[in-house]
Amino acid sequence: MLENTNLTVIILLGLAAFRLTRLIVYDKITEFLRRPFFDEIEETGEDGVVEIYLTPRIGGVRGWVGELLSCYWCTGVWVSMLLAGLYVYQTSIGNYAVIVLAIAAISSIIETIISKLIGY
Fold first, then answer.
1. Mean pLDDT of the chain
2. Whole-prediction pTM value?
3. Spatial contact of 29 and 119, defined as CB atoms under 8 Å apart
4. CA torsion, ordered 80, 83, 86, 92, to nearest 10 deg
5. What is the DSSP string of the chain?
6. d(CA 1, CA 114)
7. Residue 119, by phi and psi: left (phi above 0), alpha (psi -120 to 50) or beta?
8. Residues with Cβ < 8 Å from 63, sequence gap 6 or more?
9. Above 80 in pLDDT, residue 14?
10. What are the record keywords, sorted (predicted)?
11. CA torsion, points 21, 26, 28, 32, in degrees to nearest 10?
């Protein structure tokens, strides 16, 4: 299967990995999945503004997952391995997921560029 891998497939998998990693690590919609693995720390600045920081829990599986989720690059490696496995085994759901995530990645990149250009 890997002998059939071409640049188009690598780009699709890369875009899909980018989008799924961002979804897991940063997006608000998956915050409920990350919450059990982080502690919230509130700090009040000299100006009275309260800032909330998330730190990975200490020790155990929750701490390990928290460390993983706090590292975009680390999560990206695991996501990439998952998507590459789906590609190698040519599952219908895997192919569909890769295409949807790649399209979502392209649209988010375009949105970011447009937002920067028009000043949002």
1. 86
2. 0.76
3. no
4. -170
5. -GGG--HHHHHHHHHHHHHHHHHHHT-GGGHHHHGGGEEEEEEE-TTS-EEEEEEEPSSHHHHHHHHHHT-HHHHHHHHHHHHHHHHHTT-HHHHHHHHHHHHHHHHHHHHHHHHHHHT-
6. 38
7. left
8. 37, 56, 57
9. yes
10. Membrane, Transmembrane, Transmembrane helix
11. 80
In the block, residue with structure tokens 């680390």: 74
* 42 Rama sector, left if φ>0, alpha if ψ -120 to 50, beta otherwise: beta
Q: Which amino acid is at 16?
A: A
Residue range 88-105: mean pLDDT, rounded = 86
pLDDT per residue as tens digits for the range 43-83? 888 888 888 888 888 889 999 999 888 888 889 999 999 98
